Every structure is written in C-alpha cells, then in structure tokens.
C-alpha cells in the first residue's frame, strides 16, 4: 500500500505517485475535465479527473501523479488519478463548506456542528483552542505544577449555592461541581502547585452570549505566595504561554511583561465617581478601552474587588478589609479570569463563615484541610471558550464551543 | 526577600543563607538540639534548631545557613535558622506522615485524602499519573491529533442504556455522559484524529476494586485506518509514550514493539475449549499470565470480541461477522483499554440498529454524522486510574484516585 501523503505535503512529492485521502471539498465538472478538491486535516489537494465528481463531503482515497501546477492549492495537483470512495455522503451539507466565508447562521452551525465544523475557518477555532490549552499546560509544567483530576460530582452545592445542577446519585441528592475550587486548594497541601483542565457546570438561567451550562475551566492554584500579586504573575506567565502557542496562527495580542493593574476603588473613580460593589459588562468594556488607550494593553487587571462580592474563602486586603486580595483579568472588554489569594488559616475560615452567618458543618471536609497546616495560596480560573472567543474576536462563546450546552440546547 | 530554595536544591547552596518553606514533616527534640524536617514538593530539608518543634504539618518558612552534613537528607542541612510559622496545624494528621511506609487503612486514607496524600509515597502515585497523561498527550500530539473537549451532559442515555446518572437540566431530564464516544467519532469528521482527557460517569451499582462512578478516560479516535490493527498501533504508540514519561520513576514495564495479540476464539481454546462471549476477570488474569510466559510481555491484545458483547457501532470482522474488529488491551491481568474499528457508513448504522431492534430516531444526531461522509475510523479509551494502579501494582483503583466517587462515597 502506498503510504498516505497529506495535502499540505503534496508539492514535496512532484513526479511521484502518491495516495491522498479526505473529503470531497468541492467538485467542478467542466466540459472536458473535472476538478475534485480533496480536504484533509492539513489543507486542500486538487485532483484532475474526468466524468462526474463525487458528492461533496464524500470521503475518498485518491492515488495519482503529483504534477506541478502554480494555479492549484500548494502549487501541485494530482493527475491520472484513481479515485476510491471510502464513505459516501448521502445528504448534502447544511451549507457550502467550500466557500471561503461561512454563510450559515449560528443556530444552523450549532444544529449541524459535526458537519458545519468541517469548514476550515470553523475548524481552525478549535485548533487554536487546543494549542492554547497546550500552551497553558506547558507554562505551568515549567514552574513545577502538577496536573490533577478532581470529582465533578459533589455532595453539597456549597460554593455559591445557586445555579447548580442536581443529580440522582444512587438514590441520594448530589450536584455537578461548579468549579474545582475546594479540591484544588486542598491539593496545594499535597503538591504546592496544581492545575486542572476540565469541565465545570453552571445552571445559568440566563441566555447570554457569554454564559454556558458547561465550559472548560483552566484552573490553577499556587502555594507559598506572598499575596495575590504572585498569583497574577503566574497568570501572566500562563497567558503568555497560551499566546506563544498560537503565535503565527492568530494576530496578537501582546502580553505586557507587567500587565497593567487598577484597584477596584480607582476603577470606580474612572467610572465617574461611583460606589458600586461590582462591575457591569459595560464597565468592563470601558475599563478595557481605558487600558488600551492609557497603557497600550489589551489586558487589564482589576484588583481589590469588594469582599461583599467575593466568596467567603477570599483573603481580605490587609488594612482595608472592605476590599480583597483578589482580581479579575479583563481581555478585550470581557472578564476572562477570576482569581485571588485565599484564606489559609483554619481560624480565619471559621471567622469568615461566622461573619456571613453560615454554618461550618456544611463545609466540614473543606475546613479540615486548613486544620492541618496550609501555606498562603491563591489561584485563578480561565474560561477556555471565552479566551478563544476574545482571541478570535467572535461575538458569541458558542462559536468557540464544539457542542454548547445552555438553557435551550442539549443536542447535538 | 531571599528567594525560596527547594529542599532538593539545598546541597547546591552550601555556605549560603537561604529560605526554604514547607510542612513540618517531623520534629525531634533531643536534649540539646531539635531537628525539624521540612517537606516541600521536591523533598525533605533538615533544620537544626533548639527548643520545641512546631506541630507536625505546620507550615513554616525557614531561613538558615546551608551546612554540609552527610547524615542529613540530600547531604546538607540548615543551621542558625529563623523559623516563621505560615500556617498552623491545629489537628494532628490521621496517621504519621513521616514514616516511610503508610500505616493507615484505605478507608482512613480516603476519608482524610487532603492530608493523607501529603505522604510522599501516596503523593508520588499522582505525580506518576500526571506524567502518564503528559506522555499520552505528547505521543498523540506527535501524530497530528487535536485535543477536544466534549459535553458531559447529554440528552439521552443511548450508548449502553444502563448505569447512567440522571440530571435535572433546567426542568428537563438529561444524563451524565458515560463516554465521549459519539462526540469523538463525530470529530473525526472534522479533525481526522482527536483525543480527549476527561471525566466519564458510570452509575456502577457494584462495589469492586476496579470500578468507580467517575474516572478519567484517555480517549482517542483516528480516521483513515485500514482496520482495528491501525488503532492498535496508535494505542501501542500512546502506551509507549506514557511509559517513557514515567521512566526512571517506576520500574518497567517494557512495551514490545509489537504487543502480542490473540483472537478471542483462540483465547477460548486456551481457556479450555470454552465458547463464551466475554472474558471474566479470572480469564483476563489467565491470559495475561499466558502472555507473560509465552511472549515475555506484560501487555496482551485480545482481538475479535464477539459482536454480541460489543456496542452496535462496532465494525464486524470481515468474513466472520460473529466476531468484531475490536480489541481489549490487558495489562498485568486487567483489562486496561477497550477499542476497535467502528462502522463508518450510514447504511451500516441503520442496518446495525435494525438488527438489534433499536429505533434510529433515538440516535438521530449521531446518525447524521455518518450521512455526511465519514472515513473508516476507530479508537480506544484508557482508564487513567486503572493504568496507574496496574503500573504501581496497587490492588484498588481508589488508591490511584484523588477523591474517589462510588456507591458509598461522595466525600471528601
């Protein structure tokens, strides 16, 4: 059997008979000749043949002579071909996959994802996402982190209480984990530095362009920090690794050596002297624009979010306990990452829960971790689909999710 | 601030004052001197001090003079130290973490996982697991695979029907995915070669040493194969990558260039001329032992499993449709991997469902994939926790799971 050659490698084989395989991207029957463009994971290969072309999206194997042709994709084409059908397309695709731009609407794309994502421009988004995750891991592996895999089924809906999916767990009530927060903190006690790439679940009752019921969270948690600024430095390192991993495939962004940072209280002044405890999406866009203008940066840290809007495990700002040692990272107008320093002393956890009027019993196994000696630590979570959406500047997070799950969508 | 030095690096800093940080692994108060052994992610550092030692598992930062001492771990110790407590241990650990062997029972370890796993011998298992996953990814990245992230919430419990967890999904009934099978096949149509590392969920009603309600599945699916033997070659490549990634940390196993293989029908003869349609755990142990004896291999492929025991999407064996183009990989007596060639033609899927008396409507979005042209393809799924358990030769899969979930266990 002649070994398979990828479309992108064709020009290196001029004068040889080779085998390519892929999908019929386009067939064009002219008077005396038929052009069949075959698409594989590397690109397109033109086959010069005669007679009728197979239906688009039919899977074929083609052996032929590689012949130079400056007008063909990659400068070479296959002539004198023998075409074998491996898998017939019995239904036409929902829109023309061969056109350079995608003509379909988002609902059409999502309803027909397995076929629609074959379009090279749509497929590329997920190659960029995969490269980003590889860059994230490489960056964190490089600073001594250990990758972990934690339970997605948990006994109590403790972290935020709302927006959790309930499960029937062998006749008991359980929940889908909204984040690996408690587990990754516990594992700082074992490995010091950990990360996890995995699904998290939010029963988001809102139908927006930036929320999903399941998304991929790139979580990290780091021990022996001085404060949240060490976490921000690790995050900057991770983001730089992600950008480096997609370099050459996506224009920009530049990751400043030191990402500009503004305290929440300062941000309130910029926003017209307000005194809110959170930022609205419009505020995030305003601040992002400000950072671009004032600092030439597409990234902006907003630090010191009010404790009132942060979870109980958040470390308060020393000397100013209305605020916290936490941050969000804004990227091109959107909150991309949330993170910060956590409490690490058992007594501080008990006090924090008491202050919020919550019972420590509900958090027993979590609190146990801190009774056994924990270092100062903190971490962050990057939403992968948000990252890719902002990186590629597409409007809806569903455009960077293979099979989105939301209030209305549970298939395909 | 003096930059932190890891315990394992101490000997490279003799004569310098450095800062180490970690957990009080052990304190020993002698008449005139106190030894405090500090544990960090790299190893142990001995601190020579006086007076009472902090409670074990207290987190400390120690600055001191690095002094050569052949009796200390790594050949160096810290003298003239200043010890600062960063996080107090207010409860003693459930068993002595400083003893070389683990004295606790498995239930004690699991109940107190966040503390118990700090024991270096227990922690090491998960470092081995993390390295294995990195090796898996590296091997598959090297042959042009794309990493994907697929939904864990699905609309129907189609793949096997049984053992699924139900979810309340915005008032609708949904299920936790038992595998990414349908999604990874669909994505062969987009990327040709894909893998996913993620959680899968099985509502296993049995309490065994080798089943969990959630485990980490290393899934791959490869397009443009000739048959299942190409999938076996990719699996061998992945396993070799995993072994390479843990080399030097775990003895063996050797991965033969060609892993020995036995057809299911032949295996039945070896097992005494039986005519069953599946292998029992004892059969797997017998065959594994046979492969070790006859082929000097700790790995054995069993191919051709009867169609009756394989899912409807399995490709039958050409010319012998009682059997299938599928395989299991046995490793040290246990089924570690299941895989095979899948059907790829739309008509074949319709026929397979009809033969099993199942309605195509239940599989609509899955079947759509094959109506749009799919190449011959196949794949496999490796259970990470099983892999690590067999690699380290521990008896129970819970010993290689950070926080196991099973019939009885939902915390910590």
UniProtKB/TrEMBL annotation, chains A, B:
It is found in: Cytoplasm. InterPro entries: Aa-tRNA-synt_II, aa-tRNA-synth_II, aa-tRNA-synth_II/BPL/LPL, Asp-tRNA_synthase_2, Asp/Asn-tRNA-synth_IIb, NA-bd_OB-fold, NA-bd_OB_tRNA. One of its GO terms (cellular component) is aminoacyl-tRNA synthetase multienzyme complex. Keywords: Aminoacyl-tRNA synthetase, ATP-binding, Cytoplasm, Ligase, Nucleotide-binding, Protein biosynthesis. Its EC number is 6.1.1.23. One of its GO terms (biological process) is aspartyl-tRNA aminoacylation. The keyword RNA-binding does not apply. ATP binds at residues 202-204, 210-212, 335, 383-386. It comes from the Bacteria. Residues 181-184 are annotated as: Aspartate. Its main location: cytoplasm. GO terms for molecular function: aspartate-tRNA ligase activity; aspartate-tRNA(Asn) ligase activity; ATP binding; RNA binding. It catalyses: tRNA(Asx) + L-aspartate + ATP = L-aspartyl-tRNA(Asx) + AMP + diphosphate. Gene3D superfamilies: Bira Bifunctional Protein, Domain 2, Nucleic acid-binding proteins. It is an enzyme of class 6 (ligase). Belongs to the class-II aminoacyl-tRNA synthetase family. Type 2 subfamily. Homodimer. Aspartyl-tRNA synthetase with relaxed tRNA specificity since it is able to aspartylate not only its cognate tRNA(Asp) but also tRNA(Asn). Reaction proceeds in two steps: L-aspartate is first activated by ATP to form Asp-AMP and then transferred to the acceptor end of tRNA(Asp/Asn). This is Aspartate--tRNA(Asp/Asn) ligase. It comes from Kutzneria kofuensis. The gene is aspS.
């Amino acid at each position: 059997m002649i070994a398979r050659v990828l479309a992108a490698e064709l020009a290196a084989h001029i004068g040889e008979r080779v085998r390519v395989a892929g999908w019929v991207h386009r067939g064009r029957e002219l008077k005396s000749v038929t052009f069949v463009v075959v698409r594989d994971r590397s690109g397109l290969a033109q086959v010069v043949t005669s007679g009728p072309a197979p239906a688009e999206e039919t899977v074929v194997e083609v052996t032929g002579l590689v012949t130079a042709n400056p007008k063909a994709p990659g400068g070479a084409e296959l002539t004198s071909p023998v075409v074998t059908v491996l898998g017939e397309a019995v239904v036409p695709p929902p829109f023309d996959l061969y056109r350079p731009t995608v003509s379909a609407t988002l609902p059409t794309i999502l309803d027909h994802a397995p076929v629609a994502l074959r379009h090279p421009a749509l497929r590329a988004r997920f190659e960029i996402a995969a490269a980003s995750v590889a860059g994230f891991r490489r960056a964190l592996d490089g600073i001594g982190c250990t990758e972990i895999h934690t339970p997605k089924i948990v006994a109590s809906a403790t972290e935020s209480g709302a927006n959790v999916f309930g499960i029937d767990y062998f006749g008991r009530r359980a929940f889908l984990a909204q984040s690996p927060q408690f587990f990754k903190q516990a594992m700082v006690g074992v490995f010091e530095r950990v990360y996890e790439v995995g699904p998290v679940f939010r029963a988001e009752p809102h139908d927006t362009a930036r929320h999903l019921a399941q998304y991929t969270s790139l979580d990290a948690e780091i021990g022996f920090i001085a404060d949240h600024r060490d976490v921000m430095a690790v995050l900057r390192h991770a983001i730089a690794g992600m950008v480096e991993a997609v370099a050459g495939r996506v224009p920009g962004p530049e990751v400043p050596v030191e990402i500009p940072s503004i305290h929440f209280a300062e941000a309130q002044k910029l926003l017209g002297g307000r005194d809110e405890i959170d930022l609205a999406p419009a505020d995030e866009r305003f601040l992002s624009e400000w950072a671009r203008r004032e600092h030439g940066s597409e990234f902006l840290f907003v630090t010191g979010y009010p404790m009132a809007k942060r979870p109980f495990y958040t470390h308060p700002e020393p000397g100013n306990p209305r605020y916290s040692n936490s941050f969000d990272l804004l990227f091109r107008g959107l909150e991309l990452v949330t993170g910060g320093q956590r409490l690490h002393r058992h007594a501080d956890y008990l006090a924090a829960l008491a202050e919020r009027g919550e019972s420590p019993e509900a958090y027993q196994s979590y609190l146990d971790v801190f009774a056994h000696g924990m270092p100062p630590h903190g971490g962050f979570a990057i939403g992968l689909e948000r990252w890719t959406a902002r990186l590629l500047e597409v409007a809806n997070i569903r455009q960077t999710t293979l099979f989105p799950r939301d209030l209305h969508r549970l298939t395909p």
